[in-house]
Design a protein that fits this description.
Layout lengths: L1 H19 L8 H21 L9 H16 L5 H4 L1 H11 L2 H5 L5
Helix pairs in contact: 1-2, 1-3
Length: 107
């Protein structure tokens, strides 16, 4: 369940980014808004169920941490850290792992 939800969160993030990169004549505010709302709903679900997420190095935890860092990288407008303080706290130790530091996305 958690792995599927984390993979879905990454799908939302990538879909949102693809829409942002479209040319103006085919750009859709509808899809931007839909992805924003879907991301917030999914992050809220994780916030409410965080005590049940498997621990590192479980694939669900790794995927979820990658999704959160991708939101930091590409979707600052989401401001997930302000809205979901438990997730922010959860990510801190995981984001300092060498595997996460060595694979952090960069422009």
């Amino acid at each position: 369940l958690f792995l599927n939800a984390a993979q879905g969160l990454l799908d939302i993030a990538v879909s949102w980014r693809k829409e942002q990169m479209r040319d103006a004549e085919i750009f859709s505010e509808f899809w931007l808004d839909r992805n924003n709302k879907a991301a917030n709903r999914t992050l809220n679900w994780f916030e409410c169920n965080l005590d049940q997420i498997p621990e590192f190095p479980h694939m669900a935890a790794i995927t979820f941490a990658c999704a959160l860092q991708y939101f930091d990288f590409r979707h600052e407008v989401l401001q997930w850290r302000d809205k979901f303080p438990k997730l922010k706290t959860w990510l801190i130790p995981h984001s300092q792992r060498s595997s996460m530091l060595n694979t952090r996305p960069e422009d």
